[in-house]
Amino acid sequence: MRLRVMGTYGAELGQMRTTSFLLEQTVLLDAGSATQVLGVEEIQALQAVVLTHAHVDHVKSLPLLLDARMGCPTLEVYAAQPTIAALRVHLFNGELWPDLESIPSPDNPCLRFRTIEPERPFQAGGLRFTAVEVTHTVPTVGYIVEDGTSALAISSDTAETERLWQLVRAHPAVRAAIVEVSYPSRLHAIAEASKHLSTVNLERELAKIPEGVAVYLTHLKPVFLEEILAELEPIRRRHPHVRLLQQDQSLEL
């Protein structure tokens, strides 16, 4: 499985971009920064978008991505029902952005939402996705993504969570896990209130992940980046399998 990292930060600042991953050149997992990186041909070659939740740093490039696909086949966007409802009400509402479920026509729209259910696998772009509910301020899912040979776990935005890692421990094909850590220790109270991880409780999450699974850290807040990195140094020395996910990095699993 090939994964291309287009954005990996928990906010946007300068050249630091928000969450968006391209899987096998055909499936976009979250849409925080896709149009800042992908060319027109790559955007038009997409077969599906899979979303974890509705927060703006994970969906903000979706309207402009669809604009670049005018005249292309309908793009299937997979998400849980609360995420779809939020996007219909707050984004594709005919005011903030056109209702692309009815343009150019309801029978041939730019956008078609596909509702997913937690722990009920679905296929998109030749990959198998299993959504797993995680612990965030809005309904959010992480994913286990499989290509028939290997698997990847992605936590998305979450505080300490259990079910995803239970399934990962039972899944011997998982080769890597992408785990968030958003805040430094001095802002742990903010992390708890906003249901993110900080450097205070990251190691408790790492302990839930099987040995032999490479861990990549994501969603660091740019304004606190140097502080978070300094606090991660001793954690990474204790856990040499833990790495920082790099913007513009490509992974082959």
Description:
With 253 residues, this protein is an alpha/beta fold. The chain has a single domain (2-245), classed as 4-Layer Sandwich (Metallo-beta-lactamase, Chain A), CATH 3.60.15.10. It contains nine helices and 16 strands. The strands form three sheets. It has a seven-stranded mixed beta sheet with strand order 8-5-4-3-2-1-16. It has a seven-stranded mixed beta sheet with strand order 9-10-11-12-13-14-15. Strand 2 and strand 3 form a beta hairpin. The radius of gyration is 17 Å and the shape is globular. The chain starts with a strand and ends with a strand. The model has no long low-confidence stretch (mean pLDDT 97).
Descriptive terms for the model:
253 residues; 16 strands; alpha/beta; single chain; globular; 28% strand; 7-stranded mixed beta sheet; Metallo-beta-lactamase, Chain A
Reconstruct the topology from this structure.
Elements lengths: L1 E6 L12 E4 L3 E3 L4 H4 L2 H5 L3 E3 L5 H4 L2 H6 L7 E6 H10 L13 E2 L2 E2 L1 E6 L5 E3 L2 E7 L7 E6 L4 E4 L8 H7 L4 E7 L7 H6 L8 H5 L7 E5 L6 H14 L3 E3 L5 E3 L1
Parallel strand pairs: 3-4, 4-5, 5-8, 12-13, 13-14, 14-15
Antiparallel strand pairs: 1-2, 1-16, 2-3, 6-7, 9-10, 10-11, 11-12
